Amino acid sequence: MSKPLTALQFFTQFPDDETCLAHLFDVRFGQGFACPSCERPSKWFRIKAERAYSCQWCGHHLHPTVGTPFEQTRTPLQLWFYAIYMFTATRNGVAAKELQRQLGVTYKTAWRMAGLIREHMADVDGDLLLGGAGGRIFTPPASINGSM
Q1: 78-129 per-position pLDDT tens digit
Q2: DSSP string, 7-32
Q3: Of 51, 53, 70, 138, which cross-links 44 as Cys (Cβ 3.0–4.6 Å)?
Q4: How far apart are CA 107 and CA 102, in angstroms?
Q5: How confident is residue 139, by pLDDT bands cut at 50, 70 and 90?
Q6: What is the DSSP letter of 61?
Q7: Residue 47 forms beta bridges with which residues?
Q8: What residues contact 137, with CB distance under 8 A and at least 6 apart?
């Protein structure tokens, strides 16, 4: 298991929104990804006016944030990445109030970000979200219940 990044290492790796978007594009698609429109492997060029990349052959636009928690947000990607970093580097989770303090955003924004990050992490892990007020808390995997 590798050591988690320090905050300094994080900001060196992701110094701005442009770097975060490029990382997101590379992780999701990467250069050489076949264009969904012309179906040719393509070199993708950054479109400066929006969070998108354009196919070298037909000009089709790919939006790396679509289908992610960052899809319809005005919050800078660097703040989202840092919030995710905080969730992964902390043992006991991160409260929305702590995100508000660390990121300098409103409580409403921090609360929404925390919820979307938790939801995404649950999707990735395959676990149900913890719930309250009579909702389902957690359904353990079959191997823990003893049934197979």
Answers
A1: 999 999 999 999 888 899 999 999 999 999 999 999 999 999 988 887 765 5
A2: HHHHHHH--SHHHHHHHHHHHHT-TT
A3: 53
A4: 11
A5: very low
A6: E
A7: 52
A8: 130, 131
Host H or E run for residue 57: none
> How far is the C-alpha of 30 from the C-alpha of 4, rounded, in Å?
25
- pTM, two decimals, is 0.81
Residue found by looking up tokens 């990607």 in the block:
77
What is the SS3 assignment for 75-135? CCHHHHHHHHHHHHHCCCCCCHHHHHHHHCCCHHHHHHHHHHHHHHHHHHHCCCCCCCCCC
Residue 63 clears pLDDT 70, i.e. is over it: yes
User: pLDDT tens digit string along 24-52?
Assistant: 999 999 999 999 999 999 999 999 999 99
- List the domain boundaries for the chain: 1-18+72-127
Contact 33, 42 (CB under 8 A): yes
Which secondary structure element, helix H or strand E, spans residue 47, and what is its range?
strand 44-47
Kindly tell me the sign of the dihedral angle through the C-alpha atoms of 100, 101, 105, 107.
positive
